[in-house]
Q: What sequence folds into this?
């Protein structure tokens, strides 16, 4: 993990909730982890959806948050492509092609990144605005703010906004 | 401001004219300013729209520039979400939610960033192509080119393309 | 080219296949090259489409790859705007405006970048998933993976995900 060498840290801010961008982010993250780099990923706005559990526990929410929660994709296996989604056909095709070509699925990429030591940090302000609670996110996710992100970025050699 | 410590500069290139991305950019910028970092923001392409005055003075333009000017959102309070805009309903909902949760509105975020010393640099080439004049932009914006941006980026610890 | 000064490298990962983002990427790249910086560009996912030849040789493909190849824009002169494409009208207007304002077209920007020494690296995994072959890409493009990109990024002063 080379704690002493700050230049070997990669910081990714995954703003997007698109399937293709989330896959790209986690392929880069896993590549960096395989090269022994430290990886911190920050999830604001739509990126929060990437971290949602498929079957979250019931939580109390006001009407508007419940509506937002319904409309946004719940978790990594329900995200859509940013282009050529074609009512889900494109996204299904992309998932099939990746499987055929032996590329890990997004949920597997996320699991592998976590197991290899990536820090996944959900943006508290975004969760508050969208009415998403910690219990609705996959296990092992930390809570943070823009200060957390800026701290990580200042230690990173490379920071990507995706 | 730590003029002597170049590693404490954040550079943001806001290419997008989407409400959500503009909010993210200015929340990060204001966070960095609060942490005493220098912030330079560069606005090419659709990002120019973020800087437009709501009520610009009349300027002489050719037909195609006038058309472009009409079709693009005029200023920070008219931008739309990149996702779930739903004919403006989503954007209005997001603005309402942010207010309810005490997150500053985009025009306030921009004002605060300017008052805290952020440099806002409009891309001259983009303004020329889209037919936008300096008088149509909010006060305090500088004019620059890709060289200006690369110069700022070379001094920055972190550069984000949003 | 300042081989000895690693701080003078710019690394761009062009994930997007949108006309406006590709233009932005190559304007920044050419600006950096003009300032004597080294430039490495990596093309995963939709970015691959930017590198496609308009008239590629016939290559053997399975049905799904052939379908993907048909649906995606073939090369720099067929890309569309990310916003206001309006069935191609917006993209045509943008191309016309750029010509009128003496901004180089995307194919010219790419050629100039290549002639000035930019490395263009196509992502092998993306090509495999989308069923695009090396012969279908413009000349002078290298093949690489996420490791190649991370290596370049670790030497770069600035890395942009576009």
A:
């Amino acid at each position: 993990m080379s704690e002493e060498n700050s230049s070997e840290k990669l910081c990714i801010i995954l703003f997007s909730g698109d399937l293709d961008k989330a896959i790209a982010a986690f392929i880069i993250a896993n590549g960096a982890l395989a090269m022994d780099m430290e990886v911190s990923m920050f999830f604001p706005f739509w990126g929060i959806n990437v971290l949602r559990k498929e079957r979250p526990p019931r939580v109390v929410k006001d009407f508007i948050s419940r509506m937002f929660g319904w409309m946004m994709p719940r978790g990594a296996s329900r995200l859509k492509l940013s282009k050529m989604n074609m009512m889900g056909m494109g996204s299904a095709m992309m998932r099939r092609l990746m499987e055929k070509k032996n590329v890990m699925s997004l949920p597997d990429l996320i699991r592998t990144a976590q197991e290899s030591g990536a820090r996944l940090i959900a943006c508290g302000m975004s969760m508050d605005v969208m009415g998403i609670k910690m219990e609705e996110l996959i296990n092992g996710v930390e809570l943070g703010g823009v200060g957390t992100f800026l701290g990580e970025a200042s230690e990173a050699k490379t920071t990507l906004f995706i």
Remarks:
- Confidence is low (pLDDT under 50) at residues 1-6 of chain C.
- Chain C touches chain A at residues 13, 15, 17, 44-46, 64, 68, 71-72, 125, 128-130, 145-147, 149-150, 153-154, 156, 159, 161 (CB under 8 Å).
- The two ends of chain C are 24 Å apart (CA to CA).
- Strands of chain C lie at 9-13, 38-43, 119-123, 142-144, 158-161.
